[in-house]
Amino acid sequence: MDLTGKRVLVFGAGISGIGSAKLLESVGAQPVIFDGNEKLTPADVLSRLSAGTKAEVVIGALKEEQLSGIDLAVLSPGVPTDIPQVEMIKKAQIPVWGEVELAYQCGKGDVLAITGTNGKTTTTTLVGEIMKYHLEKGTDPKISNVHVVGNIGVPYTGVAKELDQHSVAVAEISSFQLETIADFHPAVSAITNITPDHLNRHHTMEEYIRVKERICENQTQADTCVLNYEDPVLRAFGEKLQKSFSERCEDGKCGQMSGCPAVCFFSSARELQEGWFLRDGRIICRENGVETDLLSTKELHLPGMHNYENVMTAAAMTHAFGVSFREIVHVLRLFTAVEHRIEYVAEKNGIVYYNDSKGTNPDAAIKGIQAMDRPTVLIGGGYDKNSSYEEWIRAFNGKVRALVLVGQTKEKIAAAARSCGFEDIVMADTFEEAFADCVHIAQPGDAVLLSPACASWGMFPNYEVRGKVFKDLVYALPDHGEDGAAKR
What we know:
By secondary structure, the chain is α/β, with parallel strands linked by helices. The chain has helices at residues 15-26, 42-46, 84-91, 99-106, 120-137, 156-159, 175-178, 199-202, 205-213, 232-246, 305-320, 325-334, 362-370, 390-394, 410-419, 431-441, 463-476; strands spanning 7-11, 30-35, 56-59, 72-75, 96-98, 110-115, 145-150, 167-172, 188-191, 224-228, 262-267, 275-279, 282-287, 290-296, 343-348, 351-355, 376-380, 400-405, 425-427, 447-450.
């Protein structure tokens, strides 16, 4: 769609919406920004835009007559697609995009896109580092710049105008963003895993899976989709894509309009006839019957099997895009953990503190527990996303000395823990109180782990702020050392 002169309704006046409005103005469109928050004023919204903006602002209720003359609607990721206002837009036969689709339409070049319930941020960051090193080495004259964008913190819309035909955008894509794609077409896509999450938004697991799988719906036979063989949902999806690819979609049952992407599986549990896998603690790639031994997992600075899966995902994606094994291995040996994901913070008084604030669902938090190699005092709880917690509790497997709970879900988690026979539970009213309880309970040789299995909303604006508060509390602790004297 040529957006020049088009009137585009931007639904949401937060960071995403403002980014979309700025991009729309830069390509000659007329944004109409809507936000239902009646505490906002048009002046508040306009002050966030560029000087001389001609954007219109609608605050409060969205009326049907206000849709007259609207050519397109762009939703911020936080706006559910089934609320009455969006249904009204669809009924008016106005196309609905999300910010990812808008950025894709306005930008150029290739996209490497990553989604999945867990591991997205680590994988996206690692893919970005590999691609930046590949660019730095100058081995591919077709690449002029690399941008890491999307749900990772840098809005895709914020760099879309900088993306030329030789650009590579490495994009972390959430299920919320995949709901509203249209033509979004990555050269290489990946789904790291799929476990229950965001069911308060998607309502059913079937819908959540369907949305995640959309990441490759516009890919063609020239593209690649990287999938986790040990995830039964993704294994079945990959096998369906492989069947359709081999038959060139002749049966018409795969749903792909232009063929299907080549599937590249990775596995942390078995050797594959084709793909990426672990053997005796080493990462192996087998393609066309030829094996390449890349490196030992002991050479990585990332703990835990889930991180080995993230590494294989990133390596498989970049290799599919044409990066050499040598360049990939160089970056893998240097890469360290992403902030807020099983991040070592400090050791104080013989107790090691880890920040896993990005463990915002039970499956992610299980990975945090599995990475611990010592008795652990665990902080859990937060915003309720309609998750169940029994599997998380069972994963404690004797490692967790005590579970300190805080936030909206603390009673629900406590009930789940007791149903699983875990009784070492402490309830806290504030995050600071929960941290103090952990310090009191933990003994030298233990770990204190923030891995809440819940979102941060209601207590913090996001998981980054929650993680920063945790780290600040750790840094403020006195360290008495072995002789009992406080270190400075």
